Amino acid sequence: MNTYRSVQVHRFGTSSPDDIGELEAAIRSGKLDPQGIVAILGKTEGNGCVNDFTRGYTSHVLKHALADWTGRSLEDITRNVALVMSGGTEGGLSPHLLVFEVRDISVDAPAGASLAAGVAMTKAFAPEEIGRMSQVLATEKAVRVAMAQAGIRQASDVHYVQVKCPLLTKQRIAEARSRGQSVSAENTYQSMAYSRGASALGVALALGELSVDQLTDDVICQDASLYSGVASTSAGIELMENQVMVLGNSTEWAGNLAIGHGVMQDGIDTAAVATALEQVQVPMRVGLNDGYRRRIAAVLAKAEPSRSGEIRGRRHIMLDDSDIQGSRHARALVGGVLAGVFGDTQLFVSGGAEHQGPDGGGPVAVIAARA
Amino acid sequence: MNTYRSVQVHRFGTSSPDDIGELEAAIRSGKLDPQGIVAILGKTEGNGCVNDFTRGYTSHVLKHALADWTGRSLEDITRNVALVMSGGTEGGLSPHLLVFEVRDISVDAPAGASLAAGVAMTKAFAPEEIGRMSQVLATEKAVRVAMAQAGIRQASDVHYVQVKCPLLTKQRIAEARSRGQSVSAENTYQSMAYSRGASALGVALALGELSVDQLTDDVICQDASLYSGVASTSAGIELMENQVMVLGNSTEWAGNLAIGHGVMQDGIDTAAVATALEQVQVPMRVGLNDGYRRRIAAVLAKAEPSRSGEIRGRRHIMLDDSDIQGSRHARALVGGVLAGVFGDTQLFVSGGAEHQGPDGGGPVAVIAARA
Amino acid sequence: MNTYRSVQVHRFGTSSPDDIGELEAAIRSGKLDPQGIVAILGKTEGNGCVNDFTRGYTSHVLKHALADWTGRSLEDITRNVALVMSGGTEGGLSPHLLVFEVRDISVDAPAGASLAAGVAMTKAFAPEEIGRMSQVLATEKAVRVAMAQAGIRQASDVHYVQVKCPLLTKQRIAEARSRGQSVSAENTYQSMAYSRGASALGVALALGELSVDQLTDDVICQDASLYSGVASTSAGIELMENQVMVLGNSTEWAGNLAIGHGVMQDGIDTAAVATALEQVQVPMRVGLNDGYRRRIAAVLAKAEPSRSGEIRGRRHIMLDDSDIQGSRHARALVGGVLAGVFGDTQLFVSGGAEHQGPDGGGPVAVIAARA
Amino acid sequence: MNTYRSVQVHRFGTSSPDDIGELEAAIRSGKLDPQGIVAILGKTEGNGCVNDFTRGYTSHVLKHALADWTGRSLEDITRNVALVMSGGTEGGLSPHLLVFEVRDISVDAPAGASLAAGVAMTKAFAPEEIGRMSQVLATEKAVRVAMAQAGIRQASDVHYVQVKCPLLTKQRIAEARSRGQSVSAENTYQSMAYSRGASALGVALALGELSVDQLTDDVICQDASLYSGVASTSAGIELMENQVMVLGNSTEWAGNLAIGHGVMQDGIDTAAVATALEQVQVPMRVGLNDGYRRRIAAVLAKAEPSRSGEIRGRRHIMLDDSDIQGSRHARALVGGVLAGVFGDTQLFVSGGAEHQGPDGGGPVAVIAARA
Hints:
The structure is a homotetramer of 371-residue chains. Helix content of chain A is 30%, strand content 27%. With 371 residues, chain A is of the alpha/beta class.
């Protein structure tokens, strides 16, 4: 028997942004060791846009609870556990938490490459670096560190890279200006897009999806043809560095889970889902049957309205609707497409997909147990 | 060669509620004879709720245009062409018009049962009859008349029944009260649900899905276990009778089209879509390929949030959201599920599904050309 | 020199639901003793409807901070500090916290009746009592206790009564049913209205605005002609009793503040504002000048759409709008009316006005410093 | 007795975007001659943003009705009657139509300067001229023509200038590009702002509020310190020229009406309303009494969120709200402020105030009958 690292993925439904009851019950019953939690991804039920406070609310509640459960400080939790809340459960999407726990397990030898996770941080950025090549290159480096930490040798074994990145505030912009520096974006909301975009391009660089000579400050959030097929990036006010979590498959890890992915070319591209499923040995069906459905541990996807205003030549109204933001329509659509395939609505579909997949499309990753 | 009736179904994208450009072009080019139009179903891009004026706007524009094109009066058009506008193109749904044209064609013998359409009207209702057994029974009768007119012998050959029904206004309620009569609902919005519900139960009665002893005034909009699997009903202010259009298959008609249907048990029930597709000889695939997709002439479905607050045990937030109405979430979800299957977003998904399919589910019908 | 109790009212702007920076700064600088805080009323920037989690978020943050600052337990804070968050800052309303602090001050003799505050609790209610006469009568009693505690002798000296009351959940309804009891409302949202309505009627009873023979279970949330002109009630999930805070003027208290009120007969009734201002010796002007404006410590008002669909014979669309809830329109309107008068947008305008003022109107109270 | 021109202003409530019942009744009863209608301004109940189709719907209905009533062609109506629909009746604003009728009346001598109206058109613009100095200068000229036509000699006698201006569409942008021309804005929505802004600057130039050396293409929609205090501009897809209506006072006109205006410095600036009222001899009161209220024929104002995020130092959330557009909040606020003063909610408050008043403020004009 040898000791291997193993990633456990736990999925808990929530009845409100402050509901961590299922997680707490799992910890109490010993199914989950809170000390091993490296990341929590949450779908919360706000609008996913500027005034979505459900993300902060859930983070606040989780942070205090993790400090209680582990005896660690709030600062320690903040630095070492990636809390990535994605707002917006439009259509039929179901609010839930995905908890990634790393633990050691003893096995003779792993059955093959298993789900592996690595985390790394960049340095803290100056405000003028956010949304620019400096952030791209630092992210590239952090992805490589996280891959090494995860024992993932090849870019093709990486299937999902979650990046949490900083944003600009009025104060940060003012501070940069006081030093004679310009910034990538004039307001907070816009800066989130630039930070997400630069972070995604950094992932693409690290994985060889793009080469450095294709990238300059000017292409960021401008040239939608440049993208990563595995990046999922999210901006938050509480940090100034990029926090990177790489998920892939590695023979240095054990356990029952593996991950695959595809790149949806548009919001209804089920062929990309088939690609992802194939990699985790689940046959594509319309509406997975119970047996297969039980093997699915997590589904992670990105959604955005296509700028063309069309999906396969048909007009969509996502960008014309002043009552409901376009990203809300897009999450609802992709959520519906995936729910039809998986027979399940507990899906992590998030918006804000700058340089994360092609215009109107995005990555879709599936974590599944072996048969 | 013999002369048979034939239903042609034309699908036209729209760029706004007053855009009838594609329809007009089809008429000008001779592809479509406006005199043969018996019904136009439209998905318009409003909110599909109380203050959705896109339905009235499109109807207004169509009515004036049809009068121009045919030389008939506005009254004649209103009485003889069913204009059924359904608001709400959430998620990726694409605004469009479905135009049903009846024409005579000459063939040796039909290849089998073909798409058949029949229309009929009830008498005009008194306000106190709306949303009650009187409306149920009158609708039952009208469905039978429409079936006979369409040459459809058996209930099992009926796959979709569109009913346009009246609603109560302040004036109509007052008028009933002045005669000492009570009404089924105290306000306009609520009366729309009752009228839709009673109409759907009338369809169920006509097709033997329910028996008359199961029905009383008290079950209408109360007992969700009673429903039709083929009714699609819609309330409008401009009429006091029920306008019924039955679609089914009949050997008395010719042409290339046929219709099938299934009943979605919940919003993500792709098995029901498979049932519908099977009936029109299209094999179920995740993402139909181009060849099959080209055969699809129309997809018609109903969507509503499940009252349980769950879909297959997962919480949905449709009924908790005070920013976006639940029916909007439901259309987005079902639209996404169907778009994933059909590889197309030009789908007629409508809300307001009282007694039209089980709670949280609804009928889905597919009209397709023969291979 | 004698020692008197005194109510200090502090108003702090917030930049987000978790921003308590101004409050914290005031405590650090010694302007405010956290031990003396008896109530915090907050306007938070959510939608003020079902899925407004900004209320819970702010309460969560305040509760933890108060426990930190005072060394008291979370339970102690919950029971003894009334935290009443009202969501919705539509139009120009500005998110803020109103902190009520009671402290002892030494003066020779008070200049007259000063702002006085009294708090009291009812017993915990059984689910079947919520929204019914039992809650009405218990509230009546609690208001009398709070008045006595505040040293307010006459009902006419009471100008504002804040009640925080419980609501029904699925669990609570099930529990009542398991004992063979019925409940006032079938769902959570509806139960909030019934609880608020019963609480407001209890206030009216205590203050002699209504007599007990006018009240039965059946009039609650049905007969809008029965109301209190000073009640402001708010339902929350975290308690099962009613928490009552009475504000009035009393010679047993000292300090610079006094309170007055008027009852707006509709959403644009500035005459009621004039009545309130007169009682605190501020002359009514359109746009108070700086001198008067500085004297205003707090403005508290209730807003709801009139069920008639009209304001002074003009149609409003508040109840026809499926994109924006009616209560949001109403807060925006009343907020604008009051902002025009006060020249300030930091106003506590809340919705949900069952039996709190006439249909479409509501109480407006002003706390002001003496000239 | 001499013959003078006279402007009659009629105000009609509407129950939906297609309700022109009150207008029709006034025409039938002879109160209003449809041949004399020069302009109809309407507040319709859509969202006032991109997908507000209530504006087009009302225009469509009015155009067909005016053609019927006058026997003139649709083209004639389009060119000669200014139909300006403004969407958005947030807060308590009441949907209504303001009909401007010019007729000849016989009087000995006018009592003083009376309400005067003049209309003029610019040439049709090429797409590349929209939102640029070319549009500014053409508008300046048209305002002067309209003033001359109205017999208004001095700029200070002009109190309201309504401009309807064109916008860019994909087709128009493509056409310009095919000729090697650039355009002011890349998309339709943005082009509306540029067209409104350039038109407002043209008004400012004509009235001497700004001088030509202050203006270049670069300041349009960039420098908010440059504005007109009387312009109200609105973009529509149906025209390529600017349609200008000037309202002011002139001794060449007779009748009972006069107009005044003020410039609100922020959304709650009632002092500006006092200025406007003073000019029409109505004393400022909080809540006009019935006598004064009856004299008010129309109130016209502009509303926009201040970009600073504050009103008099208090934070507003208008620009942070992803559920409700900022311009909707702003209309609700200004509507409430004005409703408090006028005791009436039938107010023409419109959004989209580029270069129309200072940032966060805007013009307010009052048309009133003489005492």
